[in-house]
Design brief:
Elements (H helix, E strand, L loop, with lengths): L2 E5 L1 H7 L10 E5 L6 H10 L3 E5 L10 H14 L4 E8 L8 H18 L3 E6 L2 H8 L6 E3 L6 H9 L3 E4 L9 H10 L4 E3 L18 H13 L3 H15 L3 H4 L4
Parallel strand pairs: 1-2, 2-3, 3-4, 4-5, 5-6, 6-7, 7-8
The structure holds zinc ion.
């Protein structure tokens, strides 16, 4: 059993109907705007091993974001959703124009996470200073998904109680920052993810949920742990961050 802490299964449904979902694994699947929240919740009702996360992703913050946040709050009050994501800040070129709105939308979602006691799955790109200073004002926790940054920046997230999500980028030979993070902080600081369908492994024709096993192999190589230990430790991390213990207590 492996916990894939960050994937986009709603995209799987429209591409390859249900084929890849392994009944032995758990999947935390991301909602990114009101366009797919219902689909994400529907998947989680259909599959016991699919855990829904919903949130307003920084790429989808537009002029109607206040309305979306009202809907989000309503869903959080009335459903079993227990993870807030994918949310965060992205100040890279295509999205920087939206910086003010993004920051406001994100702060409001931090308040929701705090109020509803929800762990976060965070997207952070070119915005680490802003992110770190916001996180310090809220007592929240969760995962920085796909973190590829310096050891110094990563340490600040870890000090706040966050873990970082490692996906197929780590398999690439030139992903030196990722390798350094994994070697420096080890499996105790990591959770596993595919970010399906956004990461294509080298020499693969298409992204797949089973790519998570390649990620495990690479982390084992970098840390000197057995693959079974990598799985056990990262499952334990994900389980405690996302409050999943009662879902599979008999399995681990
Ligand atoms: Zn994602």
């Amino acid at each position: 059993m492996i916990i894939d802490t960050h994937c986009h299964l709603d995209q799987l449904v429209s591409d390859v109907p249900y084929l890849q979902v392994d009944p032995n694994n758990f999947y935390i699947t991301m909602g990114t705007s009101s366009d797919n929240w219902a689909q994400v919740i529907k998947l989680s009702l259909r599959y016991q091993n699919v855990i829904p996360a919903i949130g307003l992703h920084p790429w989808f913050v537009d002029n109607a974001y206040e309305l979306q946040l009202k809907q989000l709050d309503h869903i959080l009050k009335t459903t079993h959703v227990s993870v807030l994501g994918e949310v965060g800040l992205d100040f890279s070129a295509p999205y920087i124009a939206n910086k003010t709105q993004q920051t406001s939308a994100f702060e409001q979602q931090l308040s929701l996470a705090h109020f509803h006691h929800l762990p976060l799955s965070l997207h952070v790109y070119k915005a680490h200073n802003a992110m770190l200073s916001l996180l310090k004002h809220y007592s929240v926790t969760g995962v920085i998904h796909g973190l590829g940054t310096s050891v110094q920046v990563a340490k600040q997230y870890l000090d706040l109680g966050f873990k970082f999500g490692v996906n197929g980028v780590v398999v690439k030979d030139n992903a030196r920052r990722y390798h350094e993070l994994v070697k420096t902080f080890g499996a105790d600081s990591i959770v596993l993810e595919t970010d399906y369908p956004n990461i294509l492994l080298p020499n693969h024709a298409q992204p797949s949920l089973i790519d998570i096993y390649t990620v495990v192999t690479k982390i084992a190589e970098l840390t000197g742990l057995l693959e079974s230990e990598v799985i056990r430790i990262t499952n334990r991390n994900a389980s405690s961050l996302f409050n999943l213990r009662n879902r599979f207590e008999p399995i681990i």
